[in-house]
């Protein structure tokens, strides 16, 4: 690189103001600058091998577990301080690097020990053998189940209808645990999602069928159990957004991209995402320098996804739910933040 065109590189990479005059005159960059220039060329070269860019998963269903974004899975099981920790050793500076939030976990969980609702309040069901079907609502799912039963499975029994007898039969199904004294099922709300979910071990079809019938005959199905309210910790989210650029990358690029970014910016870490969120790896590197902004602009121009936008949207949606929800069951919370 003794003879090169300085126009190849952003000013933030060259930092010409740090060169002795004679190096500027002869276009002879210092060793550290040469290393950054090589890393910049490496970054540009990765555009050709980027392949399919990674986005957060799109839900296949509308009422089942994959329809809610599980930010809570990114935390440690013990909900300790959220940490962005590199899983690649021996890269760039030669050591694993971690960034830890001083504000606690990414998601905070509050348990309401006794929560009551009507079955018609349920907007999502965690577990179902029909989880790959795009039902619009629990009610629609119930109508589908009743129709399927009446077509194929009644075997001489009278068809299920919109009446008390059919409701009683559907509710008698033992897998609807909350109706039969088996309290292993619970409720949950992810505040950024806003929907009341039944976290169940079975019985989804019969419960949905019962909801469909009950709505049409004016009946109520009382349910009670624990409820877990999940909320994004706004302090940790803001720490992430203010302090770091957050980019989703294909897994096969993660190691090489981390090495390149650390060579340019001086610091960086990554986290492999759980498949339930995205089939990729999160790259994080500190904001605050011109070169970091240049790197982020290049990554975005290559089509990589800015995760910061998703976190901002989730935080906004959470605040809207906690302050504006008119669902009757939310009145059981003692305050918007439980």
Q: What can you see in these coordinates?
A:
This protein has ten helices and eleven strands. By secondary structure, it is of the alpha+beta class. It has two domains: 65-106 and 234-321, no CATH class; 109-232, no CATH class. The strands form three sheets. It has a five-stranded mixed β-sheet with strand order 3-7-5-6-4. A four-stranded antiparallel β-sheet has the order 9-10-8-11. A hairpin with an 8-residue loop joins strand 9 (269-272) and strand 10. The longest helix is centred in the C-terminal third of the chain and has 18 residues, at 307-324. It is elongated, with a radius of gyration of 27 Å. The model is unreliable at 87-94 and 334-338 (pLDDT under 50). InterPro entries: DUF6685. It holds the Pfam family DUF6685.
């Amino acid at each position: 690189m003794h003879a090169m065109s300085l126009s190849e590189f952003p000013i933030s990479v060259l930092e010409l103001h740090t060169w002795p005059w004679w190096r500027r005159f002869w276009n002879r960059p210092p060793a550290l600058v040469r290393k950054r220039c090589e890393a910049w060329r490496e970054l540009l070269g990765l555009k050709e091998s980027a392949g399919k860019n990674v986005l957060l998963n799109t839900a296949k269903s509308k009422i089942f577990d994959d329809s809610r974004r599980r930010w809570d899975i990114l935390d440690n099981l013990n909900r300790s301080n959220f940490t962005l920790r590199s899983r690649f050793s021996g890269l760039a500076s030669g050591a694993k690097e971690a960034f830890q939030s001083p504000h606690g976990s990414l998601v905070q969980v509050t348990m309401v020990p006794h929560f009551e609702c009507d079955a018609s309040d349920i907007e999502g069901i965690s577990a179902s053998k029909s989880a790959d079907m795009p039902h619009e609502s629990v009610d629609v799912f119930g109508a589908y189940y009743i129709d399927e039963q009446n077509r194929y499975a009644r075997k001489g029994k009278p068809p299920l209808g919109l009446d008390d007898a059919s409701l009683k039969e559907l509710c008698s199904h033992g897998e609807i645990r909350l109706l039969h004294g088996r309290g292993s099922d619970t409720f949950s709300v992810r505040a950024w999602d806003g929907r009341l979910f039944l976290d169940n071990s079975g019985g989804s079809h019969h419960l949905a069928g019962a909801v469909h019938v009950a709505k049409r005959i004016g009946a109520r199905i009382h349910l009670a159990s624990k409820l877990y309210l999940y909320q994004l910790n706004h302090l940790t989210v803001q720490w992430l957004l203010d302090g770091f650029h957050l980019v989703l990358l294909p897994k096969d690029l993660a190691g090489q991209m981390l090495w390149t970014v650390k060579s340019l910016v001086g610091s960086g870490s990554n986290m492999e995402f759980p498949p339930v969120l995205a089939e990729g790896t999160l790259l994080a590197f500190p904001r605050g320098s011109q070169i970091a902004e240049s790197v982020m602009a290049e990554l975005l121009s290559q089509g990589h996804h800015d995760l910061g936008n998703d976190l901002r949207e989730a935080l906004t949606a959470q605040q809207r739910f906690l302050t504006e929800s008119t669902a009757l069951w939310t009145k059981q919370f003692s305050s918007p933040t439980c």
